[in-house]
Amino acid sequence: MDKTAAAPPRPATRVWLAAEFLALFFGVVGAYALAGSPGSPIPFLLVGAVAAYVYLRRQPGFERRDLTRAAAVPPALPAILAGWAVAAVVGVVVLAVARPEQLLDLPREEPLLWGLVAVFYPLLSVYPQELIYRAFLLHRYAPLLGTGAGAATASAAAFGFAHVIFGNVLSVLLTLAGGWLFARRYQKSRSLLAASVEHALYGVLAFTIGFGDLFYHGAR
Known about the structure:
Layout: H1 11-34, H2 42-57, H3 73-98, H4 105-109, H5 111-140, H6 142-145, H7 149-162, H8 169-189, H9 192-209
Helix pairs in contact: 1-7, 2-5, 3-9, 5-7, 5-8, 5-9, 7-8, 8-9
């Protein structure tokens, strides 16, 4: 458990944390989007993830095992896979009806690229995002947001808003739902690895069945 929420923070501290949270997760991302989302977001993401990791490693109230805790993954897998299977069926049906030409387009047309996405997306995108939007956000702002559903909602809102850079409302809505799911997984399992596995499964699913254009910077 985090120790950051052990004592009620002073009002000034809450104001500062709220301002910092809004500036980092909405101000910076909003400015990047307004600037036309120049370049790939991956370098910015990696820098942010390194900064989050260094910060968390230096926090005496943060349990470092939460950054992996591999033992928590197997017990979480049945629930993760059940939700993923439902999403896969719904996604395939929606695409087959609405955009049949895009169904499985990436593995069909560019199998090598699809393979590279399946391998490197979890490493270069998923885990860095989980470091920032789950481990860092939920620890740093626990004195402001608490450690329950309210904090998960804030994590989901920040995560969803980050996807405005793709210029698509659907990508924001889908990642808003995903952000809630991954935040609750992390809160329940205390395992960033479990949340990352779930995130990676949904992300690779999106690229596989034909929703990749919603989450690919170069597709704008």
